[in-house]
Amino acid sequence: MTNSSSSSASGGTSISGLLGVLFVGLKLTGFIDWPWLWVLSPFWIPLVIVLGVLVVLGIIWLIASFVK
Length: 68
Description:
There is one protein chain. By secondary structure, the protein is mostly helical. It has one domain. The chain contains three helices and no strands. The chain has helices at about 15-30, 35-40, 40-65. The longest helix has 27 residues, at about 40-65. The radius of gyration is 21 Å and the shape is elongated. The mean pLDDT is about 90.
């Protein structure tokens, strides 16, 4: 008798991804009349936040290297 274990990897969708799909669907069906910039914002705002954090960390690293 063999012991087989099944493991499943969860490739979950983020809240921002779900909101993005919802907003696109609402825009295409005419339920919302937002500009496309804001309809697609759930896709690009997290990227802007991550880039902002990286820039701040880079500035902190540069300041710390000059203080030494």
